[in-house]
Amino acid sequence: MSALEPSAGRCVDCLYPLEKGKIAVVGKRRRVCYSCATVREQLMLRTARRYTAYLSIDGSRLTTWIGNPLARVLTTKTARVGFADVRGRRPERWYLMAIDDWDHSWLAISPGPGMYARMRRAAPRKPLRKRAP
Ligand SMILES: [Zn+2]
Known about the structure:
Elements (H helix, E strand, L loop, with lengths): L22 E5 L2 E4 H14 L2 E6 L5 E3 L5 E12 L11 E9 L4 E6 L5 E6 L12
Antiparallel strand pairs: 1-2, 3-4, 3-8, 4-5, 5-6, 6-7, 7-8
Bound molecules: zinc ion (ZN).
């Protein structure tokens, strides 16, 4: 085995030895470290129309499942939707607008902080049009 060939215990992206408990599986027998998994997710987000992320506990960021940031939350609205549970409470849903590092706008729906968030690419921001004189 050459020095550059990834062995079973090495990240296929950066080739550093994998740390136990900090391994992400990206394909059949292909494993990467957490920092490379984050880079992969950020690159996927660059071209994705839809993406599934997580809403951070403080509600300020959309993150990878490891907790590394993907987008910054700009606005949040919550609503009670669907059928009531046995205590008569309807589940809460969070509606978010967020912006990622590539300056793309996203709309996201989540059950709340610490839970998944389904992201959808928002229409690009239109430049302000000057009114005709
Ligand atoms: Zn790596």
